Amino acid sequence: MKFTAESKYLSDVINAVSGTTGSADVNLEVGAKGVLIVKSSNKGAIHHTATDIVVDEGKKDDKATIQVAQFLGLISRRGVVTVETTEKGSLFISNKTIRSEVTLPPAKDVDVVENSDKTLELEPSTLAKITEHMGTLNLVNLLSDLSPTIRLRVLDGTLEMFCADEMHLAYYRIHAETQADFAIDLPHSELSQLLDVIAEDPSTQFAIEDTRVYVRNSNTKISFPKSQAGRLISFDAVNAIRDNCVRQKSPSGIKDIDREELLQNVSSCKHIASDETFVEMNGNKTKGYSLSYQTSHGRIKVVGTGVNMWQGTEPFKVTPFLLEDFLSTLSLFSQVDLYTRETVIYSHVKQGEDYEAFHSCSGA
């Protein structure tokens, strides 16, 4: 097959397809009327019709399997490129200034995307709330490079979503104006791609049936398991962690902290940071709080504004890398109240019965 395309558009399509399934390779195939179809299957399957790309040479069902990272590197910032694959397994990419040739892996068969006759109505307001909070749920697991898993459920007009690992937790409970009840557990990257597909086309049909999720619109078809994780912490366990913290009668902590200021102070500590040492956070009588940090590379102490409610003299100890990621999950709030409970630091925001946010991370 042979076609010409704008490299950024082609890159965006391939990234979206591979990101939805978490696959390292995708198929380029010739569809009806010669339009290019990008397919991938891994934990699920996606077929996306690249409507802006028409194959100049090739017949229906011609296909080639490309390695995503390699292909995107070859077309990056190349403007308009011509892509050609041969029956002998070669891939040619060219424009006015470059011509590349690589050997393709054997072409794979991509799973068929299943269909569902049911449709789940996901109101725009509910979709907007999920999307708004998704960015703050992208926890960085310091022990793993895998995309964190998001647990999401809508039940009786209440949306709950959280992400958790061994060291920190981000949880939201939000009133949702929807009649739909459903639950899914997906990696953050794949759920984000799914939400993008739903948001981009108002005609998108979305359904959850038994153990699978189905998405379909004029250009895209997706089918995958609604749970793509092993053992996960339950909603009941998350609620128990939250209740154990917020039911303290006189919590120790700092109120009305400027989140950006604290983030900058933590960033300053990171410049002499190591994995084995901890930043110490404590109350400060004149300012609000203090951060101190000392390693063999040097020492640093910074103070920040807030209302000091610290009890006792013992500081809270945590790695600056974890504290920074914890603060990034609070990006929806300009001011935050941080409290401690044993070896946990947490933030809790509750606005009546319609909204609740709880974030925590573990210290030393």
In short, what is this structure?
With 364 residues, this protein is an alpha+beta fold.
Gyration radius (Cα, Å) is 25 Å
Mean pLDDT: 88
Q: Kindly, what is the distance between the CA atoms of the first and last residues, rounded to a whole number of angstroms?
A: 58 Å
Fraction of helical residues:
10-25%
The shape, in one word, is: globular
Q: Which residues sit in consecutive blocks of at least 5 with pLDDT less than 50?
A: none
Determine the number of helices (DSSP H or I, runs of at least 4 residues).
7
The beta-strand count equals 24
Helix and strand content put the structural class at: alpha+beta
Strand residue content: 35-45%
What composes the largest sheet? Answer: 11 strands, antiparallel
Description:
With 364 residues, the chain is of the alpha+beta class. Helix content is 22%, strand content 42%. The protein is built from 7 helices and 24 strands. It has helices spanning 7-21, 68-75, 124-134, 188-200, 235-246, 259-270, 320-328; strands spanning 2-6, 25-30, 35-41, 45-57, 63-67, 80-85, 90-94, 99-103, 149-155, 158-164, 168-175, 182-187, 205-209, 212-216, 220-225, 252-258, 279-283, 288-295, 298-305, 307-309, 316-318, 335-341, 344-351, 355-362. The strands form 3 sheets. Strands 1, 2, 3, 4, 5, 6, 7, 8, 13, 14 and 15 form an 11-stranded antiparallel sheet that branches. A 9-stranded antiparallel sheet has the order 12-9-10-11-24-23-22-16-20, sandwiched between helices. A hairpin with a 4-residue loop joins strand 7 and strand 8. Helix 1 packs across helix 4, helix 3 packs antiparallel against helix 4 (188-200) and helix 6 (259-270) packs antiparallel against helix 7. The termini are far apart. The mean pLDDT is 88.
